[in-house]
Design brief:
This protein has 16 helices and 13 strands. With 492 residues, the chain is α+β, with helices and mostly antiparallel strands. It has two domains: 298 residues, Alpha-Beta Complex (set domain protein methyltransferase, domain 1), CATH 3.90.1410.10; 169 residues, Rubisco LSMT, substrate-binding domain (set domain protein methyltransferase, domain 2), CATH 3.90.1420. The N terminus is likely disordered. The structure holds S-adenosylmethionine. The site of S-adenosylmethionine has 20 residues, from strand 4, helix 10 and strand 8. S-adenosylmethionine binds next to strand 4, helix 10 and strand 8. InterPro entries: Rubisco_LSMT_subst-bd, Rubisco_LSMT_subst-bd_sf, SET_dom, SET_dom_sf, SET_RBCMT, SETD3_SETD6_MTase.
Length: 492
Amino acid sequence: MRKVALSIRKKQKQARPDALTKRHRIDTRSFPMPFRGRGSSLSWSLHSVFHSRCLHTSPNHLILYSLTSPQPQLSANEFLRWLERKATSTISSSLSIAKSSYGRSLFASKAIQAGDCILKVPYSVQITADNLLPEIRYLIGEEVGNIAKLAIVILFEKKLGQGSEWYPYISCLPQQRELHNAIFWNESELEMIRPSSIHQETINQKSQIEKDFLAINPVFECFRQSFGDFSYKDFMHACTLVGSRAWGSTKGLSLIPFADFLNHDGVSESIVMSDDDKQCSEVIADRDYAPGEQVLISYGKFSNATLMLDFGFTIPHNIYDQVQIQFDIPKNDPLHDMKLELLQQYFVPPSKDMKGLKYCLNSFTIKEVRTAKGKGKGIPQSLRAFARVLSCTSSQELHNLVMEAEQTDGRLARRPLQDISKEIQAHMMLSSLFIQLIEERSATLTSLDSSYSPLCEGVSVRRLMARDLLHGELGILKSAFAWLENYRNSLT
Ligand SMILES: C[S@@+](CC[C@H](N)C(=O)[O-])C[C@H]1O[C@@H](n2cnc3c(N)ncnc32)[C@H](O)[C@@H]1O
């Protein structure tokens, strides 16, 4: 999983809301570890699911169970008691486990006030790559990342069944059929998201997991006699679990039992934080909760694309939505090679915009442009510069851009072209691209709406996810298009 992003993120200190600073000092924020954009193999992230559009405010089942498990597992209270016994400390006196439309969830069992510490899970009852059996750890190469390692821990503990010291936890992790991460979608389901870059990212992620499985398979082979087979499907499931419910912190990647029953609310200010001094992870309530209300935290500022790929759900009207677009130099452009060379030479990888996504010369992240005069916010300057370079029709024009860059801040084509008609033309190219992207999404949304039939639950959940994703992307593209039109009009 994305090592770079993690190391950047690890350095951050949490900007804590006031309520959280009053009574608690926590060292480091912990982050869920999505796969999306991970650069290196064998190091990823997690997720699971129950998509829904409403927050349930009261527990509807009090038994903690896996939907597919033939055997009832520990009741919610027994689970917490088991974990507290293992930890020899109180983990939470204000939360209880129950089911909501999001799957297993934590609910306030008594009134909670903003600033209250609602759970405290010691490191000693968290599962990390250190929990790998020494004989397995010894066989795993350095290139295997923490997500894959944690997935292997889950797979081996699962095989141990009731003999595992983690059995009560491992046995209540979601089954694959409960997960809606895009990598589990079949071809016709993936068609629903074809216009989005997430379609290709899903294919890439699947092939990465496959490669990782092939690399790890010799290790599984060594233990086949004692543990039986580990299939690619098992491995993919385990990796997805880790990717959707493990947190990264200073000590690496951890599964944090109990805390990982907390579901996500994009606007919550509560997060899981790790305190190395106290050797535990904590969550502080960011608001008051009445007894019976579901307690939610934020996993991070994730777009629906990331939530869909890595966590298997989406949020309607996600404020963190963004669209990944690609803009290519036409192959038949006589200046193709020269432009490519220039763009490569002057390409500056974005530092914070594309959190963890693989940087690519012709790939751009578009965010919503909130006002018509939004000063290009949401349309990256680098995209406009790219368009200006593309609009050049002679090597002299390209040379002029290089000269201008050298005389100014060294960045290519960041200023409006002196020839206004060229500047308009460059932005018209962008408008055409946005029209095409808008049309593709609109057409898919129309066909999604017209072909709706009450199919099985899983498919309708995925259809809603596809709609959330495409609606969000459509809104962003339309806002960007409106800004471009406004800019062009201002030049005429
Ligand atoms: C850390 S786990 C939370 C516990 C999980 N509900 C369970 O049953 O184990 C993360 C998973 O919960 C589900 N989830 C969390 N927040 C959600 C939300 N706002 N909407 C839908 N599903 C959500 C997704 O399946 C996600 O991958």
